[in-house]
Please model this.
Amino acid sequence: MITRKYGRSGSETAALGFGGMRFENPSDIDGSAETVLHAFEKGIRYFDTAPGYCEDKSELIMGQAIPEMKKRGAPFTISTKSNKPDGDELRAQLETSLKRLNVDCIDYYNCWYVRTMEDWEGRKRRGAVDAILKAKEEGLIRHAVFSTHLAGPDIRTVIEEGYFEGVTLGYSVMNSAYRQEGIDAAAENGLGVIVMNPLGGGLITGSGDALDFLKVRDDQSMLESALHFLLNDQRISSFLVGFRNKADVDSAVAAVESFRPYTESEMEHVERSISSDFNSLCTSCRYCDVCPEDIQVWAFQECWNHLKLKGTAEGIADRLKWHWSASLSELERCTSCGACEAACTQKLPIIDRFAELESALKSL
Model:
């Protein structure tokens, strides 16, 4: 298994990590734990979970597997999270996670799901950040980190405040422009980088041949093209694939093992594909962030990508809510002034897409 450094911590981890939010049958704790153990035997060493994942079963599943992984000897790391802004509530959730996971110390503890800068200020003001740092001093966690869907410049702001040793962020070949500055800032400040949603929430591998232009080699699968793009960036410590079962583990491990570093011309192909061959797809560059009504234009355009490639609006409302802290009601403020379209570097018909997305969501 390919390994990577975790920032300046001196530790290493496998580049392929286990995302514990998609177990096929989470009610089957023993069977799901076998998927975790299978991944461990395949060389995966970073295991990520959270309260609430998989009907609130994910931490229990990991906790079932952890004693057996300890017996097998190879080192591994556990990541979990809390999105509680109140310090006392976060501490209580941390203590519950320790019991569920059957550990005395959590390797990476995330200040979870920082969505907006206002949210971030609330985490500091209400004690969540202080509670994480205190738990680290007490030896209950090893590394204080944060998880976010913020834009790159905002991620930089949080990083440069100096509280954290690592960042978990949504990143893929499809939204690299949107969060690139976050990865740049992490590298500059010695933070580890864990990537979530490396397959664009399944959009990349589920798009048929619509994204074939992202392949740099004739024999690459879409899964390989998505993961190889990340593997080629040495600043990324690990990326989390959400495994449903052992077959998912085997497919992802095989994709990682087939990696060969991209040549300069192959990287140019990917960059050219992202900047030009996306054609009608929004690349989340966020130049459209000029709306006088404060509509999160980029969020709706990214969701339009999902509508276009999947052919269904199913799940888009949840994506707006949980990834972007947005809702369809924002579009009621649109005056069709055209400021976003004038700023768009791709000259996309943004206002028409608002209407198309709105119609699709209301028809569900």
Summary: Residues 295 and 330 are 6 Å apart (CA to CA). The first helix runs from residue 29 to 41.
